[in-house]
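Running log. JK asked me to keep both predictions on one page so they can be read side by side. First protein, sequence followed by its tokens:
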Amino acid sequence: MKKLLLVLVAVAPLAAAAAGIQVSPSKLKLEIATNNPASAELTVGNPTADVQLFEVYPDDFAGIISANPASFTLEAGAAKTVRIIVFSGKLKDEETLATNISILAKPLADSRFQANSGVKIPIIISSIKPVEKNRLFSWTWLAPGLAAVVASIGGVWIAMKKRASVRLTKNNPGS
């Protein structure tokens, strides 16, 4: 599998809030390589005293952006992490998309009258060209490596030949 090239460029540390819903961070900005999926996380909280049903979805580009889980319930005071997944296969190189992630909350009990509440989290996705491996680069170490090995073998061979020559001279001084 190709290396996932994902750079989370900026995620604002601030939280977004509306009556009955809290979300952090307040915006997402992703830089991703074309043809590689990427993801970011949102933390969704229920600050109310009621159990609530939450729905998370992109306002645009539903074929490119999705939320997991897209729908869930939270007890009073609870929070959940939602993964926003971006499938960059449909993006062009160096293309930028901007939309919102909508998060809606409504009370689970229908007996109480309460208006639904929601938050929109801006998301900016920038696709970048994937780093292409230079095939020549992977072979460039081979030539110097082979030259070093050949030089080492040659050096050893010459040293052995000199030793043999010196031994012959010592053993046969008159020759």
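And the second, directly underneath as requested:
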Amino acid sequence: MRVRGIFPSGGPADARTLITALKRSDTGRAAGMGVAVIAQNLLALVFTIVFARVLGATGYGSLAVLVSAFIILMVPGSALQIAVARRLSRERASGAADAGVGVRRWLALLAIATVAVALVAIPLRSVIGAIINVDELWGAAAVPVTAMLWVILCVERGALQGFERYRIVALSIVGDAGLRIVFALLLVGVGLDVSGAFVGTGLAFVAVALLLLAPLGAELPPPDERSAGDARLGELLMGARVPVLALTLLLAIQELHVIVVKHEASGDAAGSYAVAAVAAKAIIWIAVGLGLYLVPEAARRAAVGGDTRAILLRCLSLIALAGIPMVLIYAVVGKPLLEAVFGEDLTLASDALPWLGLAMVLLACTYLSVQYLLALHRYRFTWILGAAMVVEVGALVAIGDDLTQVAIALMVVQALCAGAVLSLALRWRPAPRAPDRVAEPAPMAASLVE
């Protein structure tokens, strides 16, 4: 007996056809990329839990500082990924036979630049270590090198997106997050400790970048020495310079407090503060997801002269709906929660956790307001982010090693910043603009919430 209504025509073969069609549709491909990013962030959380336990409080405090410094340097790579994908998509849409002809040259130049950065970073490892206050000097030297490896990987991913190879890009996103854990465990296992745990990230980027060369090479046209396209990588990045500046400042505001605490507090206290900061950033996951909807929707409404503020307020209300319960949970059961997830030696910042949670809720509001303003081609807010970064660092240095007071000060700075940026966002009513001025999402590093 055949049960009707389960499959389109009553058979599994039709269901498989439907699933295949869905995978190839815009919705299916977008969903696949979204699932990959979610998986990446979950693996990043696993990385934090594993190495908080493996390295202990002091060791994880140093690792968290290395990761925070790297995160601040991630934005240019993410911007290039979007710029490369956009350029190749337009070239292919216009029927250009040499779409992507410059990619090989870009990758070669970036590889040379990476070697040059390594040659500078290695002798300066003591200086870098002193700036971010870590004793693991080889890990400190690896920070700028890892940022360059990230740029190479982003250019490859952007090119593959331009060629509509979304499945490979999604697998690479999950792959580098998983390999990062594997390589880090191997390096820690052979005695490299904190430096090994961080260098594992760079090795993961190298492995995935090498694996992407084959599918990317199959799509690229033969090299053409006459083409001028290979000289424009800098132009692509310069075209996104304002979003890059804004989001770099935003990530600095998000991460610098971890580095400052490492300077001011003991090793165990800094490690405890770092894991509390990771827990507090859970709300940023939601903000990033909302931003993927907010930016194109705000741009679309602006293009037809509609009032875009309602969509921003709706997204902010969802942040409040998720953020308020999170802060209450941290206030009531913060210490047992940190102990259960990260270990009993990483609970020194439990009293600071609710304030950190509130600070990150406010940062999420700032993030959405920034993405909204970028979608409307409004850039005058960047001075607010710069001022907030300076005030944050100055205030935290003045406070010293009192983790709860640090978190409260961070919350106050985030409140002032969010209020100023949001007031600008709500003040502007966009005039009707041509469809070709519709903004694309500003770059945001996938590991924003780590």
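Observation for JK regarding the second prediction: Residues 85 and 161 are 5 Å apart (CA to CA).
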